[in-house]
Structures
1.
Amino acid sequence: MAIAEKATFIDEAEIGRALETGLRRGVGEVREVLVKALEMKGLSMEDVAVLASISDPDLLGELFTAARRVKEHIYGRRLVIFAPLYVSNFCGNDCTYCAFRLRNKDVKRRALTQDEVSNEARILVESGHKRVLLVAGESYPNEGFEYVLKCIDSIYKTKSGPGEIRRVNVNVAPLGMDEFHALKDAKIGTYQLFQETYHRETYSRVHLVGKKRDFDWRVTVMDRAMSAGIQDVGIGVLFGLWDWRFEVLALMQHVRHLEQTFGVGPHTISVPRLEPAIGSEIATHPPKPVADIEFRKLVAIMRLAVPYTGIILSTRETAVIRRETFALGVSQISAGSRTNPGGYAEEEGGITEDGQQFSLGDHRSLDEVVRDIAGLGYVPSFCTGCYRLGRVGKDFMDLAKPGDIRMHCDPNALSSFEEYLSDYASQETRAVGERLINDTLATMDPKSRDVSRKLVERVRLGKRDVFV
Ligand code: SAM
Ligand code: SF4
């Protein structure tokens, strides 16, 4: 099979037509799409355009209700937790929105040594994290791509007390086939990359220098990753650069292309919004700002359009927005994050936020975030079971689509949460968490309850890393 080299699957004219048609649809047609969405089989581009045109407050309420129902049915009350680990902020590109851009002289550059990477991983392990997203700028001084492979190895090798990082996801610049084969051998979880904007003209306006200027090389990256055998890929848009409706439809085209080519779509979609960044005018004044209400709308639409794809929200967002969007469809969140290389060690030493990529909207510790979301009734999950058992890519989706994945996710979420509570939580968080675990067990169907209770008991008796 020839690997795509051009972004022929992103068709701006088709997006334009769909958006225009969507705007002409009446209330009845919007409601038809909402009924279809509740079948949880996903939506077409045209359907998504219809939902994107909603402005009537009643219909908006109905959209949110539908998204809540789908989220609840597929994901229950679970929220997967991860932390980013920034290893280097050297970069050969000049993306006008990012503090790491080549010509920004106001940011202190740093590439962590392997000892420093291990130290960052240790701090994350000791706070209770099990999943890490490795992040780097697009330039690896001296060592080239080998540097990233060494960092992954250092993270996996770090052990502290009863803990370790069990899944390393990676967000680094687009790679060629050989590098993707090497990433697969390094046993990464998801390869993640955001297109930033699918709108070509905007893309060339905001990417001034470096390899990232090549729109086609970036947009075809998941074709190379999947051809090299990486089965879980994550796509995304940096919202605020171009009209969000266009971007959501383009995401749908990208999903459709991957499904048609590889039989499975992306494992996750990330929805970052532009945040202020040192040395970036555009980050403070986004050309196409996405208001909070529109942001909630786009999360709800994505939930209905691709019900089985995880939606990731980062600490770019405030605690308030994070809470609102959990209910609408977000299934994974970062917590306790630092976005500068060495940020966790600096924080431990009392230094803050030098050289960070963008401003954080949520500064709370992992323990505080866990307590907050558990208090809201969501089960923080540190589960890495599917990845470790090889339930990835199409195998994962084949279980997810008929709804069978909850047989695994629900018990594993509870056992991994119990592990967190026993080993890392403050007393206050532990009390909230134990109450939630007991309440959740009480409301489960008998079969899941039996499996879950046994797993949780094993953790309470001292077993670690148990999953089904
Ligand atoms: N250098 C690689 C790249 O550009 O794909 C990977 C790492 S980059 C640090 C990760 C992501 O950060 C980018 O894809 C972009 O979407 C996001 N980002 C950059 N500047 C941002 C800002 N000001 N606010 C929010 N997100 C930002
Ligand atoms: Fe470099 Fe990525 Fe930032 Fe662009 S977004 S300047 S490629 S780190």
Note: Residues 14 and 464 are 51 Å apart (CA to CA).
2.
Amino acid sequence: MLAIIGGSGLYSLGDDFELEEQALRATPWGDTSADILLGRWNGIPLAFLPRHGPGHRVPPHQVNYRANIWALKQLGVARIIAVNAVGGITADSPPLTLAVPDQIIDYSSGREHTFFDGGDDQVSHVDFSWPYSATLRGILLEAGLQLGQPLLASATYGSTNGPRLETAAEITRMRQDGCNLVGMTGMPETVLARELEIDYACLALVVNWAAGVEDKIISMQEILANVEQGMRRVKALLLVAAGLVEQ
Ligand code: HPA
């Protein structure tokens, strides 16, 4: 089964999602951000989980990423498309860009970032050279083509801790590191999916220029307006992509 993890601005799939079952939150790692919704979207079976909980109450550094990914695996999820609102760092990533990252750099800290925590299990080091699923990335890019919706087909996502935004100097450093995008929720979600052998791809919506790219401060108003505008396109793209995953 396919799961969609909704980020900022994507708290539901809308009226055409037919809910069949609501899965409980508890896992050995604690509670998920919200009940997981199982149902059909235009006839396509899928699971939906809003990462920040209903009404966006869970900040990025407090999301229980392990519970979320674990619960999806228990429900039989084999593929995840994650939606993330991000800032744009490079000239190819202005606000309202939709991007399908192919690399990620982890700048986060202090988060529970692995299922392999020692104890009874043997130590395991997963390969993470190419962090995103080539198949799912291909499906997202194909959906973009079918909709005539341009997508940034290659990008590096820099994942910061938040909840504060970055300094201009931090963004300069991230640009030098090769980051195109900056967000707060890419890690450890991406690696936890890999640890549980779930195919995972990210659809990132740029909602602001990152700190210092423009000579002004970043306003929440601007971010929210872009989230609202962009999420309509995100949903349209997800619907086509979900259909392609099923084929
Ligand atoms: N930085 C980090 N995370 C974000 C940003 C940003 O500029 N915009 C949306 N999420």
Note: The radius of gyration is 17 Å.
